[in-house]
Design goal:
Strand content: 15-25%
Number of helices: 11
CATH architecture of the largest domain: 3-Layer(aba) Sandwich
Mean pLDDT: 93
Shape: globular
Low-confidence stretches: none
Oligomer: single chain
Amino acid sequence: MPIDRISIKNFKSIKDSGNIYLQSINILIGANGVGKSNFISFFKMLNSISKNRLSFFVAENGYENSLLYFGRKKSNSIEGSIVFKPEGRNTNNRYDFKIVPKKQASGFYFEKDEGGFNTNSNGFEESWIYEDLGGKGKEESGIAENSLQRADFLRNFFNSFNVFHFHDTSSSSSLKQPSKTLDYKYLKSDGSNLAAFLYKIKDTHPKHFKMIEYTISSVAPFFEKFDLSPDDRNPDVIFLNWLEKGSDDYFNAHHLSDGTLRFIALSTLLLQPILPNTIILDEPELGLHPFAITKLAGMIKRAAVHSQIIIATQSVNLINEFSASDIIVADREDNQTVFKRQSEESLQSWLEDYSIGELWEKNVIGGRL
């Protein structure tokens, strides 16, 4: 059940986004500092709300003045809504919230914490009935503990709002450390359980595992296959071991280039057998060869059949792999972030001579300073 639209008010650089309609693929582009990361951060906030961790999210993001549009002096609340629409049907579920900063202390409390159902979900119009989820007047939403079917739906969906970023490939990074052998329920956003998650796929979905190996070898021709099993000396951990073509020696994550390691994590995420409802990626192109970026685009399109994909990117090569209608341009106008979905039809004359990436570089579609 994909997201139909979201709206955001007074959140960081976003004063009033209006309705932002989402499709199966949503590629967010724009200059540095215009607010792309704030759009992504909104999904992080929803994830925190559903887990009774809004107060932690507020603290980690600099408290009220950093989250409110131009701070307390300019804004007195943050509002948001997210509306869901099943494939081929009308909208049927939604979540609306409003949080207000406390007057005499740090933090927020909920003034609105509501789930909604469209009574015309089998038709074309919208007529919403709202249910209080229990957070009104409190620091945390009622979603996490509410037994209503609406809350259960929202809780499960918001759990998929993890922002995947495999940027850190330093020697001490989570990607290069051994995983806990049983930590394989889902792939974590930083790839810290990559080896364990791949080990699970190998055991339960061998065809998908082979597809992941084949895709990796198409980009890294020296890679032959993984050799994954719990460590002999410590069965509680598992290393990302692999074999190189033409060699009997074993290698691990520390022997992989940064780009290859990131591509392994991306391939695992996008080719896993049971995909999350939503996949959010922050600059997945980092460190990838142009050929690997083409492969990445193909995996994104494949995954978008079953998941809704949201990507923030700075890569011209990556957006050239998609249609104009997949692109959302973030710009800064009148001291606020605005979002504009591109249209294949309106850009038709330009696209006869230029790629969508070239139009971005030439500032025809905006998103450049």
